[in-house]
Amino acid sequence: MTMRGFLIGTALCIVLGVAAFAGQSKAPTPDKLPAGWRNWTHITTGVIYSEKHPLFGAFGGVHHIYANAAAAEVYRKNGNKYPDGSQIVFVLYEAKDADGMYVAGKKKVTALMVKDSRKYRQSGGWGWQAWDANGKAIVSDPVGQCMGCHQSSPNRDLVISKWTP
Q: How far lies 42's CA from each of 4, 94, 132, in Å?
């Protein structure tokens, strides 16, 4: 092999390697909560306070929903298609009665939805994870544990919550 052939081959490998790396998804994964999520746009707050609600057993309490800029834009427009990179954080607290007013008590669960339509094809383009009050990951099967409820919102790209201006 000539020096010229060697250099061309090396350059080709470098170009292909850079192209392959650049083509990788930059969307975050739901492995950990993103830094600064608490400063994202607050989308809504709700309280599941009664057995009348079908999710009372698992999700009874005070719910706060936050969205990063990409997701917040879709919420504001009451849209139905979230772009890759959208992230939504859901925080669930015990509902505590403070002299006739429901307030957030102890944290029960923090959950994260991450949109990456290629990586999470089998789950409608969303990846999910949730952590208990001690920070232990509790989602081992996102399709089995999360899709059931989120499929109730197929016209909202599997996002259950709605913007409260």
A: 59, 19, 21
State pLDDT tens for residues 113-165. 999 999 999 899 999 999 999 999 999 988 889 988 898 999 999 999 999 98
Residue type for 160, please?
A: I
In the numeric block, which tokens belong to residue 130?
A: 């949730």
pTM of the model: 0.80
**Calpha distance 126→36 (Å, rounded):** 21
What is the number of helices (H) and of strands (E) in the chain? 4, 5
Measured at the alpha carbon of residue 97, what is the angle toward residues 89 and 101, in degrees to the nearest 5?
85
How far are the Cα atoms of 36, 48, 128, 149 from residue 124, in angstroms, in the given order?
A: 26, 26, 11, 13
Give strand pairing partners of 31.
Answer: none
